[in-house]
Amino acid sequence: MTRLRVAFAGPHITFQDAGRMGHLRFGVPASGPMDRKAFAIAQSVFSNPPEAAAVEISLGGLALDCIEGSVTFAVVGGGFIVQIGARRLGAWQVHTLHQGERLVIRPGPWGCWTYLVFAGRLLAPHWLGSSATHGQSGLGGGTLVSGQEVIVQDARTLPAAEGAIPCPIWARPRPVIHAVLGPQDRFFSPESLDDLASQPFYLTNAYDRMGLRLRGPSLTPVGALSIPSEPIVRGSVQVAGDGLATVMLADHGTTGGYPKIATVVSDDLDGFVQLRPNDAVRFKLVSPAQAVAMARAADRALRAYVTRGR
């Protein structure tokens, strides 16, 4: 067993697993990782199962003191800076932390989210069978706070596994994201639809695990603010009465009444969340058939990556 103590934790530092499946019909968000591909790659390093817990780290950063034992760990996701004591390292690497050492993970040159996984079983509370944390309520594994102890059972040290993890190009931030129009594009003028497809939008500081608001051309809906609430999926581009678009993310509500002008292709969401506030993003509209083909190709690429070995 390895015991760690949280010396510092910024906002939005949570325990996550692959997501709480099967509860959307009861009004319970799936939650899970913001960057699902990075999470899957991180877990594959130690052949951890998808339901295994990991620590999701935001731009707020995290510092952990190892107070007992040793454990090998991996950091996969954005281009964060990783430090063990005075040694300055990087993400997309495997290292070992020993008793008495401090591990610091903080923002680096790119990305908003990264994942800390261990060679061992990270203990985290469960809610409805999952340790995925719903950020606003804290239900699930929970939010990490200073002074908290983190336990890794059956911790292993794997010197042979240490070193760099290849970062595929599709794991980088994506300034162009593909989307399918609808389901309520009929409530928007031709000019608004043209702006969506041709103009840049910019990420704002108004974001959390539930969604991210964009700044750009007004996409004011016409006569649509009284439509009945209906299910929402991850990637929905929802537009309120002020004309500002919000892309719904991991902790999105299960229903909503604002019109959705488009839906981002699932694979592009992982790269989208790695963009930072004030970064520009453009929408490239595709057909449903093209979106399905893209999703299948992305799934094949991820499977090939995680099964090829290191």
Mind explaining what this structure looks like?
The protein folds into two domains: 2-170, no CATH class; 176-307, Cyclophilin-like (Cyclophilin), CATH 2.40.100.10. Helices cover 15% and strands 36% of the residues. It is built from four helices and 20 strands. The chain has helices at residues 36-45, 190-198, 266-272, 288-307, and strands at residues 2-9, 14-16, 54-57, 62-68, 71-84, 87-90, 93-97, 102-118, 121-122, 149-153, 163-164, 176-181, 201-207, 211-215, 230-231, 236-239, 245-248, 255-256, 260-264, 280-285. The strands form three sheets. Strands 1, 2, 3, 4, 5, 6, 7, 8, 9, 10 and 11 form an eleven-stranded antiparallel β-sheet that branches. Strands 12-19-16-17-14-13-20 form a seven-stranded mixed barrel. The longest helix is centred in the C-terminal third of the chain and has 20 residues, at 288-307. The mean pLDDT is 94.
Number of separate helices: 4
SSE order in H/E notation?
A: EEHEEEEEEEEEEHEEEEEEEHEH
Summarize the amount of helix as a percent range.
Answer: 10-25%
Radius of gyration: 20 Å
Q: Which structural class should the secondary elements be placed in?
A: alpha+beta
Question: What's the number of structural domains?
Answer: 2
Runs in which pLDDT lies below 50 for 5 or more consecutive residues are none
- What is the overall silhouette? elongated
Strand proportion, as a percent range, falls in: 35-45%
Q: Quick check: average pLDDT? A: 94
The counted number of beta strands is 20
Distance separating the two termini: 26 Å
